[in-house]
Amino acid sequence: MNAPHSPEALDARDRPARLAVGVVGAGRVGPALAAALRLAGHRPVAVSGVSDASRRRAADLLPDVPLVEPAEVLARADLVLLTVPDDALVPLVAGLAETGAVRPGQLIVHTSGRYGARVLDPVLRAGGLPLALHPAMTFTGTSVDVQRLAGCPFGVTAPEELRLAAEALVIEMGGEPEWIAEESRPLYHAALALGSNHLVTLVAEAMELLSLAGVAAPDRMLGPLLGAALDNALRSGDAALTGPVSRGDAGTVAAHVGELRAHAPQMVAGYLAMARATADRALAHGLLKAEQAEDLLVVLADQEKGPGGTGPGGGPGGAR
C-alpha cells in the first residue's frame, strides 16, 4: 500500500487510510504503539532491534513481524515509528535521510518528548512527512502498555498542514492529542520528567526507609497514602500540601534528617531539597506563615551544612 501524499488523506474526520507500519528501535515504546495501531486496522510489517531484550519485546508484542535492518524497515513501511533514545535520534534521522531511505509521502514519526518536528527536517527535505507524537505514559515493555494507551495524552508537534494527520493517528492508538508548540517541547518534557521520573525515585526511597523501619509490606502501607496524595494534588495543587514542612514543624524535620543521616545518608540531600521546595511553595500560597517558617528555614540551612550544623536542640537530629 502506498503512503498518502497529502495530509488530507489522514484527516481526523475520516477513518485514516490503512498503513504498513514499521518500527525502528524496539524499546519499550515502539512495539506497544505498533500493536495499538494494529488494533486500529493498520499492518505492522517490519521492526528493527539490536539487543536481546528488544528482540524479545518485538516477538511478544508483534508476533510474526520480521526483524530487519532500519533501512529495510523504511523500505517496507508507509508509517515509520522512530522509537530510539533522544541522543540517538538526531544521527539516526540524518543517516536515514542521507542514504535515501526516506520516500516522498512517507510518514516518519518520532516519540521523543524532548524534540518537536524540527529534528525531522532532513526527513522533510527528502519528501517525508514529519510528526512528533510523544505518549505521556511510562512503559513496561509488555502488553499492559497497549491497554494503558486508552485515554493517554500525547504531546503532538507537526507542521500545521500535518496537524490533522498527527491527531488522527493518536486517536487511532486510543490516545488524546495535546498540541505542543515546537519551542515548548523541552519545557513540556522537563515537566513530565519532574513529575513521573522523580516520583518513582521518591516512592522507591520511601519503601526502602519503611523496610528499614521494619514494615513488612511497604507497598501496601504506601499505596492508599500515595493514591490519596496524588489525587489531592491533581485536584487542588498546592492547597493539598500537608505534613511537617507545610506546618512549620522544624523539630520534626530536624529529627527526620538525623534519622536519615544515621540510616540512609544518601537520601539526605534529596529530602532537604524537597523540603525547601515544599516550604517555598507553602509560603507562596499562604499555607505556611512567615513566623512558622523562620525556625524551619534555619533548620534547613543548618542541615544543608552537614552533621556539624546546629538545628533546634543543638544537634542534627536534635529537637523533640
Report on this model:
Helix 11 (250-263) packs antiparallel against helix 12, helix 11 packs parallel to helix 13 and helix 12 packs antiparallel against helix 13 (290-304). The chain has 13 helices and seven strands. The chain has 320 residues and is an alpha/beta fold. The longest helix is centred in the middle third of the chain and has 28 residues, at 185-212. Helix 5 (121-125) links the parallel strand 4 (107-110) and strand 5.
A few lines on this structure:
With 320 residues, this protein is of the alpha/beta class.
SSE pattern, N- to C-terminal: EHEHHEHEHEHEHEHHHHHH
Rg (CA only): 25 Å
Mean pLDDT: 90
Tell me the strand order in the biggest sheet.
Answer: 2-1-3-4-5-6-7
Largest sheet: 7 strands, mixed
Give the N-to-C terminal Cα separation. 73 Å
Please, how many helices?
13
The helix fraction, in percent, is 40-55%
Overall geometry comes to: elongated
**Uncertain ranges:** 1-15, 309-320
Briefly note the structural class of the backbone.
alpha/beta
DSSP strand content: 5-15%
The number of E-state strands comes to: 7
Map the helices and strands.
Blueprint: E1 20-24, H1 30-39, E2 43-48, H2 52-61, H3 70-76, E3 79-82, H4 86-98, E4 107-110, H5 121-125, E5 129-135, H6 144-148, E6 153-157, H7 163-172, E7 176-179, H8 185-212, H9 218-236, H10 244-247, H11 250-263, H12 268-284, H13 290-304
